[in-house]
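Sequence, please.
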C-alpha cells in the first residue's frame, strides 16, 4: 500500500477509495474453521477480511477492533511494530469500512483475531451508528435509515436473513411438489382478485389508466386455464389502505393454484408448508410468538366461522338470517353497521369484531358467506356459503384459500353484484372482468387456490410484532409530520 493511499498520510490528504479489493475470507468462515484453536495460538495462515469497524480500543502500542461483515464479526489486533499505518488505524471512526490482511490467531483472552500487517480504508462513515452497546433504539430512525439499523442492530439482520431463507425454502417446497413459478402483471387494466382499494397510475403512451395489482389471482387462474396445472407466484402486491402493525400498503403474497384440488387440499398444503418452514428456520414446529407458544404441527384445527362465533360470542348467526336481526346482533357487539351491508357482510363483521383476535390457533376458519367471497365456489352443502377458509395463527390472518369458482355464468353474476356495490359507494368492491370471464369460458377445471401473507409469516417465525420490522423499507409518513 503506497503512502498516498493511507488514511493517515496527511490531514489534508486527497484520499480516494480503491475501485476493488481482494477479500479472501469471511468472518463466520474463519470462526468456524478455527473454532478449536487454543488461546494464544497461531495458525500460520494469512487472511484478508473486509467490513465495518464497530468497536475500537486503543491501548497505546496495541489496539483491538471488532470488524463486522455480512456473515459475522472477528477481532482485528494491531501493534505498533507490525501494523502498517498503525496511527491511522487507531484514528478510525466507528463504522468506517476497511480491508485488513494478517495472520489468523487467537488472542490470550480467547478472541479469534487477524493480527493486522496491512490495512486500507475503503469508505468513511460520516454518521454514527448509535450507542455501541444498544445500537439504534429510535424506532422511527430504524425504519427510515434501515441501512444504519442493519449494522447497529444484530436482531434486525437476523430477521431479514431469516426472511430470505423463508422465501427460498418456500420456492423449494413448492417446486418439489410440481409447482411452476411464474410472473404476472403488476400493472393491470382492471383491479381484481381481492376486495381492496387499488393504487392508480397512468400510461402516457397508451393514454391508459392502470392499477397496481391488489392480487395476482385472476392472472394465475388464467394460466391454469392455459394448462399450468400447478402454478405459484411470490408477488409484490399493493393496496391503498391504512398503516398498522399488520398492514403495509406494499407487501408480499404467495399465491398458488392447483388443478383438480379443493379447499381441503389447500388446508393440507398450508399446514405442511408452514410447519416445514418453522422447522427449517427455528428448529421446531413449535414456535414462540409474543411470549406464548404456538404448535404448528399438522393437522391444524378446522372449525366453521359461525361455530367459532357461537363459541366465543355466545350467539348463533347465519347468512340466511333476516338482515335486521343480524344488524341488531352486530350493533350489540360493537359493530358500526353500514346500511349497504347485506347479511353475509354482517356475519363477517360480527366474526371479526368478536372472534378472530381471540383465536390463538393455528385454526382453519371455514365456510364464509358468499356475499364476501365473490371468487369462491358455492359450498356443496351449506346455502349462501362458499368453500373458503382463512388460517388464523396468534390472532392474525395468515392465509386465505378457496375452492375456486369455475362457472363463468355464476362468476358473471357475482361480478355484477360487486359492480352494483361499487356503484353504491363501496371502494373495495370488484368490477366485471370480461377477459377473465372469457378465460373461464374456455374451461377451468376444479381448482384449489391459496394466498399466504409472507410478511406475516416472517413475523410469526421470527417472533416479530410489527410488519415494519420484517419489511426492509416500510411505507412511512413524511419525515417531520
Amino acid at each position: 500500500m503506497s503512502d498516498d493511499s493511507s488514511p493517515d498520510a496527511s490531514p489534508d490528504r486527497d484520499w480516494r477509495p480503491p475501485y476493488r479489493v481482494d477479500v479472501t475470507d469471511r468472518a463466520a468462515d474463519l470462526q468456524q474453521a478455527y473454532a478449536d484453536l487454543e488461546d494464544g495460538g497461531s495458525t500460520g495462515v494469512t487472511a484478508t477480511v473486509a467490513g465495518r469497524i464497530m468497536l475500537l480500543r486503543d491501548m497505546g502500542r496495541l489496539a483491538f477492533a471488532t470488524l463486522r461483515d455480512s456473515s459475522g464479526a472477528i477481532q482485528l489486533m494491531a501493534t505498533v511494530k507490525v501494523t502498517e499505518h498503525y496511527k491511522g488505524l487507531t484514528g478510525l471512526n466507528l463504522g468506517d469500512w476497511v480491508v485488513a490482511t494478517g495472520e489468523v490467531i487467537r488472542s490470550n483472552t480467547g478472541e479469534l483475531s487477524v493480527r493486522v500487517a496491512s490495512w486500507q480504508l475503503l469508505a468513511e462513515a460520516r454518521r454514527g451508528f448509535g450507542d455501541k452497546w444498544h445500537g439504534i433504539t429510535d424506532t422511527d430512525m430504524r425504519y427510515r435509515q434501515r441501512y444504519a439499523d442493519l449494522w447497529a442492530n444484530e436482531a434486525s439482520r437476523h430477521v431479514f436473513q431469516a426472511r430470505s431463507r423463508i422465501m427460498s425454502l418456500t420456492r423449494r417446497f413448492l417446486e418439489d411438489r410440481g409447482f411452476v413459478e411464474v410472473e404476472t402483471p403488476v400493472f393491470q387494466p382492471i383491479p381484481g382478485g381481492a376486495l381492496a382499494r387499488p393504487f392508480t397510475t397512468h400510461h402516457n403512451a397508451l393514454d391508459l389508466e392502470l392499477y397496481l395489482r391488489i392480487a395476482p389471482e385472476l392472472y394465475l387462474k388464467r394460466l391454469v386455464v392455459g394448462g399450468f396445472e400447478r402454478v405459484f407466484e411470490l408477488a409484490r402486491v399493493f393496496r391503498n389502505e391504512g398503516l398498522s402493525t399488520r398492514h403495509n400498503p406494499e407487501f408480499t403474497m404467495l399465491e398458488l393454484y392447483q388443478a383438480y384440488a379443493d379447499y381441503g387440499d389447500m388446508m393440507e398444503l398450508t399446514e405442511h408448508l408452514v410447519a416445514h418452514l418453522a422447522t427449517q428456520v427455528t428448529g421446531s414446529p413449535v414456535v414462540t410468538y409474543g411470549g406464548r407458544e404456538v404448535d404448528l404441527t399438522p393437522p391444524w384445527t378446522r372449525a366453521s366461522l359461525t361455530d367459532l362465533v357461537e363459541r366465543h360470542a355466545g350467539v348463533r348467526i347465519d347468512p340466511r338470517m333476516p338482515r335486521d336481526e343480524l344488524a341488531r346482533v352486530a350493533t350489540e357487539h360493537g359493530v358500526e353497521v353500514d346500511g349497504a351491508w347485506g347479511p353475509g357482510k354482517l356475519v363477517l363483521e360480527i366474526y371479526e369484531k368478536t372472534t378472530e383476535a381471540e383465536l390463538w390457533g393455528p385454526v382453519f376458519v371455514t365456510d364464509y358467506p358468499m356475499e364476501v367471497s365473490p371468487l369462491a365456489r358455492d359450498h356443496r352443502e351449506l346455502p349462501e356459503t362458499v368453500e373458503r377458509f382463512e388460517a388464523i395463527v396468534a390472532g392474525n390472518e395468515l392465509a386465505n384459500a378457496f375452492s375456486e369458482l369455475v362457472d363463468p355464468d355464476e362468476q358473471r353474476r357475482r361480478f355484477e353484484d360487486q359492480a352494483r356495490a361499487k356503484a353504491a359507494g363501496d371502494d373495495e368492491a370488484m368490477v366485471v372482468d370480461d377477459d377473465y370471464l372469457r378465460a373461464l369460458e374456455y374451461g377451468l377445471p376444479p381448482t384449489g387456490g391459496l394466498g399466504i401473507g409472507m410478511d406475516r409469516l416472517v413475523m410469526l417465525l421470527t417472533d416479530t410484532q410489527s410488519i415494519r420490522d420484517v419489511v426492509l423499507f416500510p411505507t412511512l409518513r413524511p419525515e417531520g409530520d
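The longest helix spans residues 154-175.
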